[in-house]
């Protein structure tokens, strides 16, 4: 079933877009990473203009996060205080990202900038995830359990002033640390349409020293509100949000997130991370090839 996307100015197969949203929602439910870092590249591969893909992907991340946040709230695995600080930082970052997005649009380099950032981001993340998952699988099969490390915030975090108590996370740290983390993810959300969970989750674990029980839920909480703000900013400034595309992605992502949450309880996390690392690296390689590939005919005329 083909549908016309008014902002993207092309027709797409509705079931394919719903399927893409479902796959990304599945990843969101399994890993708590929002999945948006794959939505934009997959839409670009399908033929959606990069600016429209990045702006519309944020709304898909919103839908996937809503479903996950309610699940984690019911389990009391969300640090509300920490999440609010990150949301404030995320909104500030989204405002900064808006200025950068408009500047790159004016220079005519936004599509190239999005593609380059994705290649660098996905390539580095994929290699780190692959390395960690391979080490975990080797240790699992050899029967040697790695020594569990005590969670502790980074020394730089401990040096920041104005400490607050975050009771749910079991932390006594400066709110500047989660605020700056929120600013970073807000900029990425605005530029790339990502939720930022792939950066937030490791940073919350290894920099802030949060307990693993509340990391995923708090990450999704922040992603939910920041992607809402980002979508509104895109609608008012870049006007690149395609509501039809966003709706199709939302349908798939909400269902996929629930399925992913159930799968995460039955499959060993080491194998899940390995599969995700492989997917991320394949997407990064495909985007890198797209940057360097020169078609035989730069301009084509298609008669329908």
TrEMBL record:
Can you tell me where the transmembrane regions are?
Answer: 12-38, 44-70, 82-104, 171-199, 205-228, 240-259, 271-289
The entry's cellular-component GO terms read:
plasma membrane
Q: Which Pfam families match?
A: TauE (PF01925)
Which lineage ranks, top first, belong to the organism behind this chain? Bacteria, Pseudomonadati, Pseudomonadota, Alphaproteobacteria, Sphingomonadales
Q: What keywords are assigned to this protein?
A: Cell membrane, Membrane, Transmembrane, Transmembrane helix
Which protein family is it in? Belongs to the 4-toluene sulfonate uptake permease (TSUP) (TC 2.A.102) family.
Q: Where in the cell is it found?
A: Cell membrane; Membrane
What is the organism field in this record? Answer: Sphingobium phenoxybenzoativorans
Q: What membrane topology is given?
A: Multi-pass membrane protein
Q: Which domain of life is it from?
A: Bacteria
Q: What is this protein called?
A: Probable membrane transporter protein
Major location (coarse)? membrane
């Amino acid at each position: 079933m083909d549908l016309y996307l008014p902002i993207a100015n092309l027709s797409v197969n509705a079931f394919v877009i719903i399927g893409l949203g479902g796959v990304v929602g599945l990843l969101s439910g399994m890993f708590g990473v929002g999945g948006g870092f794959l939505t934009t590249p997959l839409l670009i591969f399908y033929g959606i203009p990069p600016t429209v893909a990045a702006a519309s992907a944020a709304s898909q991340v919103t839908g996937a996060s809503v479903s996950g946040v309610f699940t984690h709230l019911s389990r009391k695995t969300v640090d509300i205080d920490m999440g609010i600080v990150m949301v404030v930082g995320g909104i500030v970052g989204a405002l900064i990202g808006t200025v950068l997005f408009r500047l790159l649009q004016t220079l005519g380099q936004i599509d190239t900038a999005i593609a380059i950032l994705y290649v660098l981001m996905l390539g580095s993340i994929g290699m780190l995830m692959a390395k960690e998952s391979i080490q975990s699988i080797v240790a699992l099969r050899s029967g040697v359990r790695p020594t569990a490390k005590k969670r502790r915030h980074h020394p730089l975090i401990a040096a920041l002033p104005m400490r607050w108590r975050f009771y749910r996370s079991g932390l006594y740290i400066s709110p500047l640390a989660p605020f700056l983390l929120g600013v970073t993810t807000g900029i990425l959300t605005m530029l790339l349409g990502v939720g930022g969970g792939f950066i937030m989750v490791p940073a919350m674990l290894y920099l802030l020293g949060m307990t693993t029980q509340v990391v995923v839920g708090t990450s999704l909480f922040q992603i939910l509100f920041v992607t809402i703000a980002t979508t509104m900013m895109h609608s008012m400034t870049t006007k690149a949000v395609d509501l039809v595309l966003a709706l199709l992605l939302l349908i798939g992502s909400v269902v996929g997130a629930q399925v992913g949450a159930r799968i995460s309880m039955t499959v060993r996390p080491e194998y899940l991370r390995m599969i995700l690392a492989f997917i991320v690296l394949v997407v990064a390689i495909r985007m890198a090839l797209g940057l360097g590939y020169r078609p035989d005919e730069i301009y084509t005329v298609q008669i329908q």
